[in-house]
Amino acid sequence: MAEISESDRVKEMTDAEMKALEEKYDPEVRFRPLLPSMTWIVGGVLFVLSCYHFYTSGYGIPQASVHRGTHLAFTLGLIFFSFTVFGARPEPRNTLMTPMGVSLADWVLAIAGIVSALYVPWVFNDLAFRVGNPLFIDVVMGTILIVVLMEATRRAMGWPLPVIAILFMAYAYFGQSMPGVLTHPGASWTNIVNHLYLTSQGIYGTALGVIATYVFHFVLFGVMATRIGLGQLFIDLASSLAGRFAGGPAKVSVVSSAMLGSISGSSIANTVTTGSLTIPAMIRIGYPRHFAAAVEAASSTGGQITPPVMGAVAFLMIEYLGVPLTTILTAALVPAFMHFFGVLVQVHLEARRRGLRGLSKDELPVAWAVFKAGWLTTLPLFVLVATLLSGKTPYLAAFYGILSCILVLIIQNLVRHGSDIMGAAKASASELWDSFVTGAKFSLSVTAAAALVGVIIGVVTLTGVGFKIAYMVTSVAAGWAESVSGALSVLPFEVMSVSALTLMFTLIMTAIVCILMGCGIPTTANYLIMIAVAAPILSMLGVQPLVAHFFVFYYGVMADITPPVALAAYAAAGIADSNAFKTGNTAFRLGMGKALVPFVFVFSPSLLIVVDGFTWSQFIIGVTGAMAGIWMLSAAFADWLIGPMRAYERALCAVAAILLVAPNLYATLVGLALIAPVVLRQLPMLRMSPAERAAL
Q1: CA–CA separation, 527 vs 517, rounded Å?
Q2: Dihedral sign (CA 406, 412, 416, 417)
Q3: pLDDT computed for residue 188 by the predictor
Q4: Cα three-residue angle 124-125-128, rounded to 5 degrees
Q5: Mean pLDDT of 630-638
Q6: What is the largest CA-CA distance in the chain?
Q7: Residue 198's closest CA among 71, 111, 69?
Q8: CB–CB of 452/165 below 8 Å?
Q9: Subcellular location, in the record's words (predicted)?
Q10: Fewest beta carbons within 10 Å, which of 173, 300, 359, 611?
């Protein structure tokens, strides 16, 4: 292995540097500085919000409109105190125009948001008789909430989602002017506000309900679990298990990201947390800077698809699909494994190609010692999973999980402070305060996004545009399928039927839209929009609802590593000091396994285990074909199978990868036939040393 030059070394980051980097690439945590008095006020409100949700998760959720309205009111008020107008963070000053360091405009917007959000639950009984015939005050309050909500979402996560919401509302209003199949009678502003504000089909709909009822609690659990050291335990265990193999730090990155992702669900947070340790280690053993950063980014995006937390989407699925959470978590197991398997194969092949070493025994922690020192931190996760598997509600599982975290936190401080009971009590109270405040802060942006997505979903249900788009897309896909089927008719066997080709082209178009939407919209909002628009398309072609939801979800996550807005990749590039765009392109290549797998489980649904028509034979064939296809595609990208590959061999492996994942016996056989000469030529290289292979 070549010596690592001083310029190829990178230092591990401090906590402050990690926080600054996360804020740079994740607008959702770019909170404004506040004066000490306002810090305590905002912190107190955040703490109360967390206490409210912790209490209701254990002792019962209030009436839906009251619960959702209360959560939204808290959120809107806090956003205007936590985020500045354009993201700049000047030092606050207490003046006549900025009382307590916050501008008068922000005070007005915060109060307007609170009042308009609470208006519906305050007069709910009366509103039940006014839906469809709102009073003037109802329209005014609804208009205020829509405007304030768009500004709050813009501050918390940028322009794209508010712009999309405006376009959808314009479509609802100007329906008679729309072209072709998109035309509709149009709706007055009064009817639009009535539907979006006074019914459960808009702002106060399922999306906001899921955030307030499930997601907040699991965000808080993730913060608490990280606080007690569960995340660090996962990183240390991954190091002890995977670090000794070729390219060890890269494999540690993959394994630790998978484990940490099970309690986090945030791509950028995972990238910064694990990448601050793994990226410097990867560079030290010889991985190029951009590749090291790309490995961490590609691995960390898997956090959103890894049970049991899966960010917010798992809980949205249980509401929209009407299935238990255990069904969603079971369905996610194999696809999540496939993602990490794909990244792991590529880092392994890259390590072999470069002749990179693993970590020495002296550089690795001992697995048993790590677990012995930190086993107590795993208790909350076991409690959470056990409660979920027992059939209890997800929010009750989160309640017991958070309660377990608090118990572990107290025990840790008692051990740390010995006989100093008061010191342990103060430390526990301080850490609990900080965790509850941080957990509530992290929920602000996702709540605003979910409420604004309710506007988009409301327009879809008001106008029926989802089915209009479905008709257009399937018509185009069917035309392409007929053309391709005619071109393939010269073959002695049928590779894919016209209906299968129609479905494939529909999936490709849906995947492209998901990725493009995800370039400016967080995964949760992307998923909500796409199931409103794309799910009807896939349903028309016979795709099971669970499969359709997983398909759009997986491609939405891809946006975090897809240039030009690959935020997880750019955060990793910041740690590695590498070219951001090159890092994003490499991360996308490393995540290609995730791009293949959704097509596999659409054509072979048994991969999701809990679908209708599941058979073990289809499952085994699907898993085997997917793993083989991912390996061949990885080899083509890495230019290495057993040894270096020739250009035609890389082309054969790339084509074979597509055929191997296809649920068609003929396609699979053709794929195997294509890779046979490649494998036969490479087999003798097994007897060579790594240096001899690299010299070929």
Answers
A1: 9
A2: positive
A3: 94
A4: 85
A5: 90
A6: 84
A7: 69
A8: yes
A9: Cell inner membrane
A10: 173
User: Pick from 638, 635, 639: which is nearest to 656 by CA?
Assistant: 635
Tokens representing 218 are 């699991």
Of 224, 155, 460, 442, the closest CA to residue 312 belongs to 442
Tell me the C-alpha distance between 388 and 326, whole Å. 7
SS3 247: coil
Tokens of 663: 């649920």
DSSP per-residue string spanning 299-363 = HHGGGGGSTTT-TTHHHHHHHHH---HHHHHHHHHHHHHHHHHHHHHHHHHHHHHHT-----GGG
Contact status, residue 168 vs residue 196, Cβ threshold 8 Å: no
* Residue extents of the structural domains in the chain: 17-228+366-463
Identify the three-state secondary structure at position 566: coil
Whether pLDDT at 684 is above 70: yes
- State the Cα angle at 649 between 647 and 653, rounded to 5°: 120
Q: Tell me phi and psi for residue 199, to 5 degrees.
A: -110, 175
What sign for the dihedral angle of Cα 345, 364, 574, 516? positive
The upper half-sphere exposure of residue 478, i.e. CA atoms within 13 Å in the direction of its Cβ, equals: 9
First to last CA, the chain: 16
Residue 144 or 513, more confident: 144
CA distances from 474 to 178, 494, 509, 533, 544 (A): 20, 22, 10, 13, 16
The band of 468, judged by pLDDT with boundaries at 50, 70 and 90, is: confident
Distance (Å, whole) CA 313 – CA 525:
9
The DSSP secondary structure of 587-653, one letter per residue, reads HHHHTHHHHHHHHHHHHSGGGGSSSTT--HHHHHHHHHHHHHHHHHHHHHHHTBSSSB--HHHHHHH
Residues counted in the chain: 696
The residue assigned the tokens 């354009």 is: 86
Residues 6+ apart with CB under 8 A from 557: 267, 301, 304, 305, 518, 523, 594
Provide Rg for the chain, Cα atoms. Answer: 26
Q: Whose structure tokens read 């492996």?
A: 653
